[in-house]
Amino acid sequence: MDTADSASTGTEGSRGRKGKRAVRRTQTASMADVARLAGVSSQTVSRVSNGYAGVNEETREQVLAAMKELGYRPNSAARALKRGEFRTIGVITFNLSTTGNMRTLEAIATSAAQEGYAVTLLPVAVPTQDEVRGAFSRLGELAVDAVIAIMEVHLLDAATISLPPHVQVVVADSDAGDRYAVVDTDQAGGAGAAVRHLLDLGHSTVWHLAGPEESFAAQRRTDAWRAALTEAGRVPPPLVRGDWSAESGYRAGLRLADERDCTAVFAANDQMALGLLRALHERGRKIPDDVSVIGFDDIPEAGSFLPPLTTVHQDFAEVGRLCVEGVLRRMRHGGPEHGTTLVPTKLVVRGSTAPPAGDA
User: Fold this and answer.
1) pLDDT tens across 52-65, in order?
2) Of the candidates 108, 185, 175, the residue with the CA atom closest to the CA atom of residue 344
3) What share of the chain is helix, strand, coil (3-state, %, to 5)?
């Protein structure tokens, strides 16, 4: 059957090119339909749709206009098979609510776009072996070239969890560098710098508002807090646990406000620090005169807290860039199958820390 006749539904088009009858818009328009409407060969249409050079501008505009009129979309799967790649990176993440994961995802998408790649996101509600396998299976169906996994929970170190073999994978925010290529912030270095800053100001010890127990990042920061105090010959106070939210920081702050010997607190993220500041203020503890507070992340709003928050800056943009760079390098040239790349942190000193009362 003549494709043009079927595409035109037996009706003359509103315009024609080079003596050819125009084909009306249909949902099944083919490359041949575009070629017929534009009055060019199918090979020329292919070159235009793939962005190849060697087509003069007038012809290119003619082909693009025909594509638009017909509602034609190039078959990306067919083009990918021909090129050997889909130019799409899959991203698996288990938590879209935390600052770290969201900013890392944003950085990955930005870096991928700069390299000419799209990002396909696949959130996974429950971090189990079956969910991980299912996620990779679904990404395979969606045609991706490689995968970046943002695994902020303790997952890849579990005996029951393994990523499928022969898949180009880079992992962000994990302690699985012995088995996978991992990109992470220097969690321990940042937390240690926060504790030492408070000790150098003259505080006898530093309390810690930790993140959730299942979080790899929270555990790294807690371990570094404890190690820094022990190295300085100080006894770590009892650990206070939160869940990354400002509300959990507020609840912890109400408890810490009653600890009269608490003059310094290192919060594992800025949101919890925000809730902590509110609780201390409500209980009449002045910041930083009575209690110094440090956060972690350096969210854009940290400088607008009252007082402005001293915090540990994470370079999420660099983490995202290195994740994309890592998967592309492995796709194109091969590369390390395991090992951890750490992105340095930086302590940003603002108005929420000061020497303890009497030492200023």
Assistant:
1) 667 888 998 898 88
2) 185
3) 40, 15, 45
